[in-house]
Each structure stands twice: as structure tokens, then as C-alpha cells.
Write a structure and sequence with these properties.
This protein has 2 helices and 4 strands, in the order H-E-E-E-E-H. It has one domain. By secondary structure, it is mainly beta. A 4-stranded antiparallel sheet has the order 1-2-3-4.
Length: 80
Amino acid sequence: MDLGKKWGEVPVGVGLENRKFLVEVWHHEGAHEVNGREYMDTFSILITTPDGRSCLLMSGENFNTTLVPLPRKPEQDRDP
């Protein structure tokens, strides 16, 4: 499957799992039509093994690239 050609998705994140499996996040921002159906903010997550085999782990819609702040740890709330 060509995520860029069919879905208009581009890579937005990449990382290594357990120092050997490549994890990729692809995303298309906004609305687009595929096979007569309209989709909004699609995403796909793939994993590639060291021997080059890739597997689509999941895909969906309404992906948001906005960073969400992490909750503060209780010790950070205390005054010194």
C-alpha cells in the first residue's frame, strides 16, 4: 500500500522499538476523498522489521498533531 499516493499521507513521526523495529506514523491533515468516501485527518501506524517486512498496525481518522502537555508530578507542585 502506498500511503502517500492513495491516502495523501506523509510521515510525521518515526522511532525505534526495542532498538530494532522501525515504527512510523503517517498523517494527512484535512479532508480528502478515497474511493468515493470522504475522510478527515487520516493516520496510519506501521512497523518494519529488520529484514524489511512492513505491517500496518492501525489506521483511522481524526488524528490531531497538537502536543498535549503531560500532567505534572506531585513533587513539582511543591514550593522549594
